[in-house]
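Ticket #335: bound-state structure for adenosine-5'-triphosphate.
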Amino acid sequence: MTATQPFGEPASGPAIEAVDLVKHFGETVAVDGVSFSVPAGSVLGMLGPNGAGKTTTVRMMTTLTTPTSGTGRVAGHDIVREPDAVRRAMGLTGQAATVDELLTGRENLRLIGALYGLDRATIRRQSDDLLERFSLTDAGGRVVKTYSGGMRRRLDLAVSLIATPPVLFLDEPTTGLDPRSRVELWEVLRELVDDGTTLLLTTQYLEEADQLADTIVVVDKGRIIAEGTPLQLKDASGKAALVVTVSRAEDLGAAEAMLRGISEEVHVDHSARSITAPAEGLGDVTRAAALFEGSEIELDDLGLQRPSLDDVFLHLTGHRAEEPTDTDDLEEASA
Ligand SMILES: Nc1ncnc2c1ncn2[C@@H]1O[C@H](COP(=O)(O)OP(=O)(O)OP(=O)(O)O)[C@@H](O)[C@H]1O
Ligand SMILES: [Mg+2]
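RESOLUTION: The complex was predicted; output attached.
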């Protein structure tokens, strides 16, 4: 990395940095003092419900709108003072598809490649590579109007990669995709990051941030309300639980009595044949396993359950992260 670092840029500075970003729209405070820093080659997940300020933050970082105050840098370039340099260093896939419906997939790639000033040979090579990578080779000659929602999303991402930017911003990249297309897109994103791309992605899906992000910032009402690795956030939101599931319902009472030796606060769920108790960590799992090992009680399962990011959000904000609605409709509308 140091070998290709252009002269005059800090070799080890963060690839993306926001410093106290604020954006007002009239009376509305869309972003209210947001700061974060993303090391090169890592993934920041910005997680928050509708209206949290995710898109506005991305629009400021990608020079599409000017901050009311605060600043940011992308690949070492100031988003307000050096917008052209920022644009050259980054790719953006916005929340709404931006590809031209009346052009083919390949024509869309060619058009954006030309806008970036790439030469014909590079455009051809890059287009072929990207169509291949996103499983669009066969569809490359068809007009986008005929694409499914998942195909459009993939083309959108391909287009934002034509100039091989080192920094990529993705605003809700998988909203509107069915679960399988979502998992496929995650795979592609992991490959990009493995190849050294720095990624900032926004999402309303707790699982998506959990799957992809090295660090998560949780945003609500324009502010960062928590920050950490997925594991740290889960640990901060409450204790883990020991969950034991017995094979035979008639063993529930005996199993409950045994677990009371570990914790006073056991909870029995008769329909699930399971018992839950607060746990400090894996040590409690080992102790419980040893207890049951020497007993007649047969178990289906014994393990440690960590809080989900859903629990995290509830814990932090007092309300659940709004689940995205109409995803099926979206998929259909763009299909
Ligand atoms: N151009 C604009 N003019 C006026 N208000 C705006 C504008 N853009 C965003 N807002 C407001 O700013 C707030 C943050 O919006 P933003 O789009 O950044 O949220 P978001 O986190 O991206 O939400 P979503 O998950 O729904 O995409 C909202 O209250 C929104 O109504
Ligand atoms: Mg948005």
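RESOLUTION NOTES: DSSP finds twelve helices and 14 strands in the chain.
TICKET STATUS: resolved
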